[in-house]
Design goal:
By secondary structure, the chain is of the alpha+beta class. It contains 19 helices and 13 strands. Helix 5 links the parallel strand 4 and strand 5. 39% of the residues are buried.
Length: 539
């Protein structure tokens, strides 16, 4: 049981009541719904009971990893018209849209600085901290710089989750920074209902060896150092559709530093570089091509992918970030030859702590790839070339060596990726060229009059049916719980009402939400149903 200082509680709540607003959250009155539901006053420093069992971080956020970032088109629209620094020592600044800013100190030395913050892409706190650090360092590596110091940035629902979770996130970040030889010298934290973590990183760079995204040249090979698909795998894990191998491979990729690849890139005198993160391969490639005034070609069959990504694509498992990235950079895709539409979507997938996209002379590419493989960066591959001077157009080609797998049948957890059948207000049959067939003939109880069976098997099947009906699908679990409350009230089933109200409270429903759901049932049933509900809730 949490320790309660009743005198402090009385003093704090009295002040809130006099103001007419909770001093922790002015949008609420006092006593708030948390106090009524759990007998806890957060304003008085009383903490929530720690959740039983492990906490899955990705269940606490709306968008996982770099999919939580603002999309490229919206960001560009917001930044348009903002003043750029007039200081001539700023070699790379905000208008360039590059990975990091660069500030000249003297002829041989410049500062390179970046900041990156995002929500969890994995469930394990320590691993998330490692990924946050590796992702933040990547922007400095992409410029050819050497990171020296970092400041941590974290948003955390303090007092709602155990302190240990935040500590493990920070520990993971500190350990990964130590691996990179970077000193974490401070940080900043805020209370936030959605967990976020990242770092502001400062490094040094020789301005004469600075790598930007604006110097790719016709004839250059394009090298990608990590496989794509972290966003797809993270979303698949959120909805229970990712296998353990895919999740583990994705975590290994995201925690891997781009340090060695960056050092080799400088050694091989690459012309241009950017890291592939939230805007997807297409978004970052478009930025490189436009900034370099060049057109590029991508060989789909050679793009490295994480295990399980092709299967997810075949089943239509893509997060909303894919759509946002297509809106931002889809116009650059000038032509697609021999690549299935679902496969194209992978190239717009938001990456978290992705690889470096490097443009370097063709004669150096083979040796560069061999060195990368020898250093353990085995997924690195040449994925295309800079074809000519141009306006940033991208041509995507396939030789047919890689195809999407067959969609698995019987995935009951979702209908994502399947073509809609029949007539409906959303997918009318006349628009799809299909005509709806006759409805199946069912008896009143849904079975054949001569069917064989017994009561036990019928009960088992009915319970399985109830489980499938109540599971999240096209409607999320919270919506279905509210519907269950309304229908239980309408049916005047007191045990049902008590069960679903109890479950709703455990799932975080406020009393107002529960009453509103119940009143939907009352609206259809009238006064007798209202009397039933009032009586049931008094017992």
């Amino acid at each position: 049981m949490p320790v309660r200082d009743l005198e402090k509680r009385r003093r704090v709540m009295q002040r809130s009541m006099q103001l007419g607003h909770c001093i922790c959250d002015p949008k609420k009155a006092c006593p708030c719904d948390i106090f009524r539901r759990q007998d806890i006053c957060p304003c008085a420093g009383e903490e929530y009971a720690a959740p039983a069992g492990p906490v899955r971080l990705t269940e606490l956020v709306e968008s996982a990893g770099c999919a939580s970032k603002i999309d490229q088109a919206t960001l560009q629209r917001i930044l348009t018209g903002l003043p750029a620094p007039a200081d001539p020592r700023v070699l790379v600044g905000m208008p360039a849209g590059d990975d990091a800013g660069v500030y000249l100190l003297d002829e041989q030395t410049a500062l390179v600085q970046t900041v990156d913050v995002f929500s969890p892409s994995v469930d394990d706190p320590y691993t998330f901290g490692q990924i946050a650090a590796a992702n933040s360092l990547s922007d400095v590596y992409a410029m050819g710089g050497r990171p020296l110091t970092a400041l941590s940035v974290i948003g955390f629902p303090a007092r709602k989750l155990p302190d240990e979770i935040m500590q493990q996130i920070l520990r993971g970040g500190l350990d990964k920074m130590a691996e990179a030889g970077v000193a974490v010298i401070g940080g900043h934290s805020i209370k936030d209902d959605e967990i976020k973590a990242g770092f502001a990183v400062t490094g040094l760079i020789d301005p004469r060896r600075l790598k930007t995204n604006a110097a790719a040249r016709p004839g250059d090979c394009l090298v990608l150092t990590k496989p794509l698909g972290t966003g797809i795998i993270a979303f698949a894990a959120q909805i229970g559709r990712a296998d353990a191998e895919s999740v583990a491979a994705s975590a290994r990729s995201m925690t891997a530093l781009n340090k060695t690849a960056a050092e080799l890139m400088v050694e091989f005198d690459a012309h241009a570089c950017t890291d592939v993160t939230g805007f997807g391969l297409m978004g970052h490639l478009k930025s490189m091509a436009v900034a370099s005034k060049a057109d590029v070609e991508i060989a789909w069959d050679d793009v490295p992918l994480l295990p399980g990504v092709l299967q997810c694509a075949a089943e239509g498992i893509f997060s909303g970030a894919v759509e946002r990235n297509k809106e931002s950079s889809g116009d650059a895709l000038a032509a697609v030859e021999g690549v299935e539409p679902a496969a194209v979507e992978i190239l717009f997938d938001a990456q978290t702590s992705g690889g470096l996209l490097i443009a370097l002379p063709e004669p150096a590419a083979e040796g560069f790839i061999k060195r990368l493989h020898a250093e353990g960066i085995r997924e690195a591959a040449v994925i295309g070339r800079v074809s000519a001077e141009g306006t940033g157009r991208i041509l995507l080609r396939s030789q047919g060596r890689r195809r999407l797998p067959t969609v698995k049948v019987g995935r009951s957890s979702s209908v994502v990726g399947r073509e809609p059948k029949g007539d409906s207000p959303i997918f009318p049959a006349e628009k799809s060229g299909q005509s709806p067939g006759p409805p199946p003939t069912l008896s009143c109880c849904g079975g054949d009059d001569h069917a064989q069976g017994n009561v036990d098997s019928a009960k088992e099947k009915f319970l399985a049916f109830l489980g499938a009906t109540n599971a999240s699908g096209a409607l999320d679990g919270k919506t279905k719980r509210a519907m269950a409350i309304a229908l239980s009230v309408l049916a005047k089933c007191e045990p049902c009402v008590k069960l679903h109200v109890r479950k709703a409270r455990e799932e975080g429903f406020t009393p107002e939400e529960i009453d509103e759901a119940a009143w939907m049932g009352i609206a259809f049933g009238g006064s007798p149903v209202m009397m039933f509900y009032n009586e049931a809730m008094r017992k």
